[in-house]
């Protein structure tokens, strides 16, 4: 079937801010799909509230709306742009739901717009619990027995018919709170009563427990003619019970025979056919480990995180093909872009093993429950490719950048064997390390399989790795042993550690014996056909097949690794734009990255893609082969910056700002010299290594002080300390996450926080704009609401900031990007920190000002000057729009996480509010972050003493908006004393009805709780209030400034928003 | 123990010996299936060939009851890595032991991707697997070049007719090296299946009054099956419905005046898209063939193409004009591989006048 020529203009719905469970994979899929649509001359209108995405670039879509993803906004866009079709399957669950709502309300039909990619009926049958069950029954596909109950007795009755254990899932609670597994009636009654109370609609789903079964996924494609293929299947190493996003996953499946493989494949094809899906679909199965029995867990009728993984694992571009199918093409008409010989109706065959490991945020949320459940907690993931499983696992582990490089990285040697056996029951991210310890202790593989339900095949692979570890420790390092260690991807550093040799000794021994990495191609077809696309992975002990190229100029662009809090999708945006800019200048481009969710690891972004860990050794393997003329590190976040020294040692010139200048910005003493030389003030402080030194500095400066490690991103480990005790606590935590670098202790200044991204060519600087944070200093810049242009500082302060920026950029000899944070107190401007690299605000400022920052910075790195590129140096004229970047959090997904804002970054994503006025921009920003208030017009306030005077103003504004305010005793008294009516409510520890009852009454819109300092105590009232609010879906604010901003936004709520087409912003 | 794979072009791979240590000369082919190594090992169509598995981890689920014949037929086995332990609820043993029991020589630990690329670029060639470290290429290479697979059908076919009881249509299955699942697919649909040795005269088969005749898959060059082709011509001339798979498809083409030729490196795997030219639908198929029917020389009065390979446009099936006969190059019986084209067995039953899904 050829292309449907009636489709001329398509509205593509993006997935919005990055949250846990909905991350960069949708930027990857959306970007690929938009490019695929444009290839077909279809006009693309894009809407996504997330400004950090590549899909919202004007070269990806024709019209770009960075607007809140709500039904009214979408309706407005449709009325304005008049697309003939809406494609809802690329924006994750968010996009799908919006498409569904537009269809169900009749709006699309009324305006002659059709849904493409899938039909509303298909979405309904895949997503609605009952409809899905009925559909599966119709085609005889088994699902786990389940029933929604509203009383305990109903729950007991139903469970008696299906047998224990059962899984309980309360409806409409977030993060799986109130749910659990009941093994007997007592547990059932207990969990059920709690779950019914937590559920807003008093419903709990009771489901047959299939925990412990193998979890298998299939990625399936189908076109409108009914042709179906499976792209890939995947096996979760963690059995059913752990969300697939939090599981270690291997592709293809390893422990399934052809019978099981084909049984599930056929089932997946039957399901996609019955649902009538046109495009991509993900089917998840639970497979009984001892029989052929299976259950369909769920079906996602859209592209997903798994489809991104499958695309990267196989080379098959699912989103691209899905977009073509949406236009009417059939699979046998779409060319395979990798082989350029075969077609999309071809099932990829792998001749390697792919391992994915989730990147979990427990280093950020130390109080969060580390247990892995059916609620996803990972912020990102890494993928690795090798021709053996052990090697793929080792490569994935070191790609995580969590101070892990082998199975010894978490030390359980202190545990007794009894304790270890007990701990093996714990399902968390350290399970494989416990199994490794079990093997060291001689616990039988069968026993560990019985406890963990992890297939013995995987346990044996861990055993092989442990045996190597022991051989390296106990035997003489022969060439043969080294060869074998490298085959299973032991890094030189680990081999050196285990053999008590130096890394250089190991390296010499390798090179002298020809033990070097070889590169193999991902080609979709196991070498059956010649491939045209250089997508490589490394192995040891094989023939190299990477093609040597000798272009005029060759540049290595280092990616940013897994998405984590503090280093998000923004850095992928920068890496991709940098790559494109180099290509435009005639360079051959090479990307190294290990994140399967991103655009940068799409096979056609750079000339060559190396899907590899970002460690010195792995990068050196590539450098030895490619011999690049230079490397760029300033766009890949801290991951790339950290490799600077190693690259120089390898003889690779660092393009742009020099390594010693990067150091000067990070090193306390060097930086102090720079400040002295440029006469720029900063908060007094000192560099320390121990808690004792830290306390000495703190007492000299006077509390409060800011404590933070150097060389980290996102303020990891950064805290405000008010006394010696807190210093001790924080230094302890810092030492767990970053041992190698000194710790900085600064006087804490509270003022306005200002942020600047600038480009410097060594002489001139260009500042696209100055941003001001709504929250005063003390809240991490990534968690603050950021406003461009800075609204409350005067012209002279802006001039001072421009001047300081210029002085710092020149003193640091910056060539390329620089990011500076300032504090403004009265008329004084202090520097907080300087990062001679790209930052997370670059994409948003680029979009609102129309200045292609990364592109310019890259050209400057190559050797152009700001003036040559047609720009006047200095602070650029302000754009005609106000743009507000709003942080978005995923606290509800992380049980036990402390949600109060502070110097350590906690947000997972962001959205943008853009408008001609500040008020509308702010309203849009809150709306885009999903804050749709008012609902019940009731709120709770409990603020610390220092905030009470300002809390009165906040309370007065909310009261004027019609809010009924509940407050704990002292806050209530203070408010009432100052003329704002507040109802006094008991603390949690006091008798009912208390704050907790109020929250669980599901009638509260908002909690404003500004926490007193002090950390880690999970029994405190404030912590419990905040957690319970988050888990029942109540918006919770922990800073007075944020509360005022929200009040402002609600005061200026408006039904009709003015739409801004980013693609038409001036300067563009 | 070390083992060597020596190719006709002089390339030598050094690896580790698996299975039998005896020396073997054979045609070397590769298979891209990621699962189903046991079905491949026991598929009689591999007689006369040493198979290289492109998927690097083999033996993960051990030896299960999924045998496509009573024994292994491959001449040799070439893998990257054999799993140290197998894990599967139906596992009855390890692949290491199986290869030894079946006396199959093999080699592990070589760069199977590099080997596959050689075969892809230069075409299928002969090779030797040996554990003799003192091999002499000058002596071996001429032997490799001279090696011919020869008549392997006679080697793999059954020696006497057997019958699978069924209440439905009566099918005569000519065994040229049939995979078990062909008979089973028909038997599962209610057919009574009588399996005949390859050299059974047409007259004998027709005398049993079958409702339909099934020509199976099998090994080797179809042109080495002269006498069988003559008998198939007689079956063609009868009015009995015929369905043929793989070698059977090629033999029917040769019997009716069409030609076949050897492909550069064939199709072996479970991912080949074939298009049903009648409906336009594409199915993913299981494949294992090194020869193909020449459609250029096809007389439309005799037969027309029914299926085509989406990747390379080669013929994947024929529909015989004015006859109740259709033949396919791929394997609707799967095992290993996708079950998508299993509906063809239903079509065959309909051709015989039965109800599909009986």
Give the SSE layout.
The complex is a heterodimer of chains A (1068) and B (358).
Chain A lengths: L8 E5 L11 H15 L3 E5 L15 E3 L5 H11 L3 E3 L4 H13 L2 H4 L3 E2 L4 H8 L1 H10 L7 E4 L2 H11 L3 E5 L9 E3 L2 H14 L5 E5 L5 E9 L5 E9 L12 E3 L6 H18 L3 E9 L6 E7 L4 H10 L3 H9 L26 E7 L20 E7 L2 H11 L17 H7 L7 H11 L3 H8 L3 H19 L4 H9 L4 H8 L3 H10 L4 E5 L13 E6 L13 E5 L10 H16 L3 E6 L14 E4 L4 H11 L3 E3 L4 H5 L2 H6 L9 H8 L1 H11 L6 E4 L2 H11 L3 E5 L9 E3 L2 H14 L5 E5 L4 E10 L3 E9 L12 E3 L6 H17 L3 E11 L2 E8 L6 H8 L3 H10 L11 E2 L6 E7 L20 E7 L2 H11 L9 E6 L4 H13 L3 E4 L1 H9 L5 E2 L10 H6 L5 E5 L10 H11 L3 E3 L2 H12 L17
Parallel strand pairs in A: 1-2, 1-4, 2-3, 4-5, 18-21, 19-20, 19-22, 20-21, 28-32, 35-36, 35-38, 36-37, 38-39
Antiparallel strand pairs in A: 6-9, 7-8, 7-9, 10-11, 10-13, 11-12, 12-15, 13-14, 15-16, 17-18, 23-26, 24-25, 24-26, 27-28, 27-30, 28-29, 29-33, 30-31, 33-34
Helix pairs in contact in A: 1-11, 5-6, 13-14, 14-16, 18-19, 20-30, 24-25, 25-28, 26-27, 31-36, 32-36
Chain B lengths: L1 E6 L4 E8 L4 E8 L5 H5 L7 E5 L3 E2 L17 E3 L2 E2 L12 H7 L3 E4 L3 H11 L2 E6 L6 H10 L6 H4 L5 E3 L5 E6 L4 H9 L3 E6 L4 H6 L4 E4 L10 H12 L4 E4 L1 H9 L3 E18 L5 E13 L8 E7 L5 E6 L4 E4 L14 H9 L7
Parallel strand pairs in B: 3-4, 4-6, 5-7, 6-8, 11-12, 11-13, 13-14, 14-19
Antiparallel strand pairs in B: 1-2, 1-9, 2-8, 3-9, 10-12, 15-16, 15-17, 17-18, 18-19
Helix pairs in contact in B: 8-9
């Amino acid at each position: 079937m050829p292309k449907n020529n009636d489709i001329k203009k398509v509205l593509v719905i993006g997935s919005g801010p990055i949250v846990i469970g909905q991350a960069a994979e949708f930027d990857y899929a959306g970007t690929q799909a938009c490019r695929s649509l444009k290839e077909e001359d279809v006009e693309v209108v894009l809407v996504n509230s997330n400004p950090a995405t590549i899909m919202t670039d004007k070269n990806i879509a024709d019209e770009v709306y960075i607007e809140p993803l709500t039904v009214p906004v979408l309706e407005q866009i449709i009325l304005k742009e008049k697309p003939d079709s809406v494609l809802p399957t690329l924006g994750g669950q968010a996009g799908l739901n919006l498409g569904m709502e537009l269809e169900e309300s009749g709006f699309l039909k009324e305006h002659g717009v059709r849904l493409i990619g899938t039909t509303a009926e298909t979405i309904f049958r895949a997503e609605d619990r009952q409809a899905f069950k009925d559909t599966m029954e119709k085609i005889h596909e088994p699902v786990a027995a389940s029933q929604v109950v509203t009383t305990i007795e109903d729950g007991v009755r139903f469970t008696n018919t299906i047998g224990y254990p059962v899984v309980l899932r309360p409806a409409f609670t977030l993060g799986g709170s109130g749910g659990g597994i009941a093994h007997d009636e007592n547990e059932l009654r207990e969990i059920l009563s709690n779950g019914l109370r937590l559920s807003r609609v008093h419903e709990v789903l009771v489901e047959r427990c299939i925990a412990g079964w193998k979890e298998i996924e299939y990625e399936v494609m189908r076109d409108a003619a009914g042709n179906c293929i499976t792209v890939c299947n995947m096996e979760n190493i963690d059995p059913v019970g752990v969300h697939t996003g939090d599981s270690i996953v291997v592709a293809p499946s390893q422990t399934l025979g052809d019978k099981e493989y084909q049984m599930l494949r056929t089932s997946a094809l039957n399901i996609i056919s019955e649902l009538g899906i046109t495009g991509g679909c993900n089917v998840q199965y639970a497979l009984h480990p001892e029989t052929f029995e299976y259950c369909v867990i769920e079906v996602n009728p859209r592209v997903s995180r798994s489809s991104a993984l499958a695309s990267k694992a196989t080379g098959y571009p699912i989103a691209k093909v899905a977009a073509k199918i949406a236009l009417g093409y059939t699979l046998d008409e779409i060319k395979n872009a990798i082989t350029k010989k075969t077609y999309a109706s071809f099932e990829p065959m792998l001749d390697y093993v792919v391992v994915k490991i989730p990147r979990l945020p427990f280093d950020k949320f130390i109080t969060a429950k580390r247990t892995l459940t059916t609620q996803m907690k990972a912020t990102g993931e890494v993928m690795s490719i090798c021709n053996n499983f052990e090697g793929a696992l080792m490569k994935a582990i070191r790609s995580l950048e969590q101070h892990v490089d082998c199975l010894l990285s978490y030390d359980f040697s202190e545990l007794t064997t009894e304790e270890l056996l007990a701990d093996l029951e714990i399902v968390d991210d350290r399970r494989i390390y416990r199994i490794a310890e079990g093997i060291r202790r001689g616990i039988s593989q069968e026993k560990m399989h019985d406890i963990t339900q992890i297939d013995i095949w995987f346990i044996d692979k861990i055993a092989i790795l442990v045996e190597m570890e022991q051989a390296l420790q106990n035997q003489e390092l022969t060439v043969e042993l080294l060869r074998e260690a490298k085959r299973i991807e032991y890094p030189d550093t680990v081999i050196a550690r285990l053999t008590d040799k130096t890394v250089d000794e190991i390296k010499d021994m390798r090179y002298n014996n020809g033990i070097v990495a070889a590169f193999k191609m991902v080609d979709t077809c196991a070498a059956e056909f010649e491939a045209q696309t250089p997508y490589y992975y490394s192995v040891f002990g094989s023939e190299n097949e990477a093609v040597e190229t000798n272009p005029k100029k060759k540049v290595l662009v280092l990616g940013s690794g897994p998405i984590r809090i503090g280093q998000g999708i923004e850095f992928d945006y920068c890496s991709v734009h940098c790559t494109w800019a180099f290509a435009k200048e005639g360079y051959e481009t090479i990307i190294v990255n290990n994140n399967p969710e991103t655009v940068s690891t799409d096979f056609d972004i750079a000339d060559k893609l190396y899907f590899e860990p970002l460690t010195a050794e792995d990068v050196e393997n590539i450098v030895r082969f490619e011999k690049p003329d230079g490397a760029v590190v300033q766009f890949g976040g801290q991951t790339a910056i950290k490799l600077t020294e190693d690259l120089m040692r390898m003889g690779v010139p660092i393009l742009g700002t020099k390594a010693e200048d990067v150091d000067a910005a990070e090193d306390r003493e060097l930086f102090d010299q720079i400040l002295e030389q440029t006469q720029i003030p900063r908060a007094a402080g000192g560099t320390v290594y121990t808690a004792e030194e830290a306390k000495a500095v703190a007492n000299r400066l006077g509390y409060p002080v800011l404590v933070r490690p150097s060389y980290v991103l996102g303020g990891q480990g950064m805290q405000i300390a008010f006394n010696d005790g807190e210093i001790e606590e924080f230094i302890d935590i810092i030492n767990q996450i970053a041992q190698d670098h000194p710790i900085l202790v600064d006087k804490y200044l509270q003022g306005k926080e200002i942020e600047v991204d600038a480009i410097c060519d060594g002489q001139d600087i260009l500042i696209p704009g100055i941003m001001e944070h709504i929250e005063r200093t003390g809240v991490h810049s990534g968690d603050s609401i950021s406003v461009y242009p800075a609204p409350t500082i005067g012209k002279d302060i802006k001039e001072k900031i421009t001047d300081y920026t210029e002085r710092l950029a020149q003193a640091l000899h910056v060539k390329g990007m620089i990011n500076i944070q300032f504090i403004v107190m009265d008329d004084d401007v202090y520097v907080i920190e300087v990062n001679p690299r790209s930052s997370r605000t670059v994409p948003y400022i680029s979009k609102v000002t129309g200045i292609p920052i990364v592109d310019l910075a890259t050209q400057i790195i190559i050797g152009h000057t700001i003036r040559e590129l047609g720009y006047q140096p200095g602070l650029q004229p302000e754009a005609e729009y106000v743009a507000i970047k709003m942080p978005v959090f995923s606290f509800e997904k992380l049980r036990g996480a402390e949600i109060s804002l502070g110097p350590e970054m906690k947000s997972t994503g962001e959205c943008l509010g853009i408008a001609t006025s500040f008020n509308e921009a702010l309203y849009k920003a809150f709306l885009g972050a999903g804050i749709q208030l008012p609902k019940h017009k009731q709120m709770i306030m409990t603020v610390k003493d220092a905030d009470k005077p300002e809390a009165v103003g906040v309370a007065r504004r909310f009261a004027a908006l019609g809010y009924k305010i509940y407050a704990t005793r002292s806050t209530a008294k203070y408010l009432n004393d100052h003329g704002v009516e507040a109802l006094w409510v008991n603390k949690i520890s006091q008798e009912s009805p208390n704050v907790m009852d109020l929250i669980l009454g599901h009638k509260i819109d908002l909690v404003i709780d500004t926490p007193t300092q002090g950390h880690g105590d999970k029994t405190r009232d404030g912590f419990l209030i905040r957690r319970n609010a988050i888990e029942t879906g109540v918006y919770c604010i922990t800073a007075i400034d944020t509360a005022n901003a929200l009040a402002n936004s609600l005061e200026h709520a408006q039904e009709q928003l003015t739409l801004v087409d980013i693609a038409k912003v001036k300067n563009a | 123990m070390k083992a060597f794979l020596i190719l006709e072009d002089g390339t030598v791979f050094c690896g580790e010996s698996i299975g039998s240590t005896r020396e073997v000369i054979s045609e070397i082919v590769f298979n891209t299936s990621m699962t189903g190594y046991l079905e491949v090992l026991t598929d009689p169509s591999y007689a006369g060939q040493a198979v290289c598995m492109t998927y690097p981890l083999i033996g993960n689920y051990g030896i299960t009851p999924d045998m496509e014949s009573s024994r292994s037929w491959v001449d040799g086995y070439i893998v990257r890595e054999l799993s140290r332990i197998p894990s599967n609820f139906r596992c009855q043993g390890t692949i290491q032991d199986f290869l030894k029991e079946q006396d199959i020589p093999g080699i592990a630990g070589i760069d199977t991707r590099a080997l596959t690329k050689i075969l892809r670029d230069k075409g299928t060639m002969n090779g030797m697997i040996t554990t003799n470290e003192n091999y002499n290429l000058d002596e071996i290479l001429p032997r490799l070049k001279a090696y011919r697979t020869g008549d392997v059908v006679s080697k793999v076919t059954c020696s006497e007719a057997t019958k699978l009881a069924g209440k439905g249509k009566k099918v005569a299955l000519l065994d040229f090296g049939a995979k078990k699942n062909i008979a089973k697919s028909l038997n599962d649909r209610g057919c009574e299946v009588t399996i005949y040795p390859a050299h059974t005269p047409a007259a004998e088969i027709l005398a049993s009054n079958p409702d339909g005749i099934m020509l199976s898959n099998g090994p080797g060059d179809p042109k080495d099956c002269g006498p069988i082709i003559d008998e198939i011509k007689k079956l063609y001339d009868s009015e009995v419905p015929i369905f043929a798979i793989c070698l059977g498809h090629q033999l029917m083409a040769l019997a009716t005046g069409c030609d076949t030729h050897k492909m550069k490196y064939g199709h072996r795997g479970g991912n080949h898209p074939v298009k049903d030219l009648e409906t336009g639908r594409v199915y993913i198929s299981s494949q294992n063939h090194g020869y193909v029917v020449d459609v250029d020389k096809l007389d439309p009065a005799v037969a027309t193409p029914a299926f085509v390979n989406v990747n390379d446009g080669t013929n994947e099936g024929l529909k015989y004009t004015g006859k109740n006969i259709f033949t396919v190059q791929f394997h609707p019986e799967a095992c290993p591989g996708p079950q998508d084209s299993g509906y063809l067995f239903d079509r065959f039953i309909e051709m015989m006048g039965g109800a599909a899904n009986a």
